[in-house]
Specification:
- This is DUF659 domain-containing protein.
- InterPro entries: DUF659, RNaseH-like_sf.
- By secondary structure, the protein is an alpha+beta fold.
- It folds into 4 domains: 86 residues, eRF1 domain 2 (Nucleotidyltransferase, domain 5, 2-Layer Sandwich), CATH 3.30.420; 48 residues, no CATH class; 30 residues; 63 residues, no CATH class.
- 53% of the residues lie in helices and 12% in strands.
- The protein contains 11 helices and 5 strands, in the order E-E-E-H-E-H-E-H-H-H-H-H-H-H-H-H.
- A 3-stranded antiparallel sheet has the order 1-2-3, with no helix packed on it. A two-stranded parallel sheet has the order 4-5.
- The chain is extended.
């Protein structure tokens, strides 16, 4: 992940962080003031970072949605065919909130900074008159509002997963074999596009496709009586652990 900012001297700096299931760690910071608007140079910078970390260790590169970074991200995906690039969700939400602030129904409810400056002396005078000597609330370190929104969205996502699991009674394995089961085309496209990008070897992809056909057709271990009888009695991960022996590559 890369996060750009401007310091007190007007320099454009980019922090690079590495995220994994264990958390996020700082990798390095680079002064890219001379190349910040150059798509090609930004691409080379991202490419060098991936090379330094090791392409085999990188699944996704995340940047903000600035046009130069969008162009650089696309160039990176063209060269590094196994990884994905995407824009930062927090930055996208910031832009959405800015656009909402420009809507007619919100424009006049947000007080512009010059008006705040003009009204501040009046406010202080009123405060001194009625506060009985108590101080104004002191400002403290805050986080982006988007951090709050993303945290809320993650909580909602986790709750949605729990509700889905409860609805299916944690027996998702059997629903694939239901006669009314019809996989969503968007999900299938996403699955195969991901396989083509992350598994470049054609033979491996062919083996995975063959194993998926066995799973869908309930053939081999997937079609044994015990596998059929336990579709609605075991959690999917445990079911695959028991009967997915012929789908090791896919597993």
């Amino acid at each position: 992940m890369c996060d750009g900012w401007t310091d007190g001297k007007g320099r454009s700096l980019t922090n690079f962080l590495v995220n994994s299931p264990s958390g996020s760690v700082f990798f390095k910071s680079i002064d890219n003031s001379d190349v910040i608007k150059n798509d090609q140079k930004i691409f080379e910078l991202l490419d060098n970072i991936v090379e330094e970390i090791g392409e085999e260790n990188v699944v996704q590169v995340v940047t903000n949605g600035a046009s130069n970074l969008v162009a650089a991200g696309r160039m990176l995906m063209e060269k590094r065919t196994k990884l994905f690039w995407s824009t930062c969700a927090a930055h996208c939400l910031d832009l959405v909130l800015e656009d909402i602030g420009l809507l007619e129904s919100f424009r006049y409810s947000i007080i512009p900074l010059p008006m705040q400056r003009k009204s501040l002396p009046t406010y202080i005078g009123i405060h001194e008159q009625y506060s009985k000597g108590r101080e104004l609330a002191r400002p403290d370190v805050t986080r982006f509002a988007t951090s709050y929104f993303i945290n809320c969205m993650q909580q909602q996502k986790d709750r949605a997963k729990e509700q889905i699991a409860e609805k299916f009674q944690k027996q998702e394995s059997r629903y694939h074999y239901d006669k009314n089961f019809n996989p969503d085309s968007e999900v299938l496209i996403g699955l195969y596009e991901t396989l083509e990008r992350m598994v470049p070897d054609r033979r491996t992809r062919f083996a995975m496709d063959q194993q998926l056909e066995k799973f869908k057709g309930a053939k081999g271990l997937f079609g044994m009586n015990m596998a059929i009888d336990t579709r609605d009695k075991k959690q999917p991960a445990l079911w695959w652990e028991s009967y997915g022996g012929e789908g090791r590559v896919t597993k």
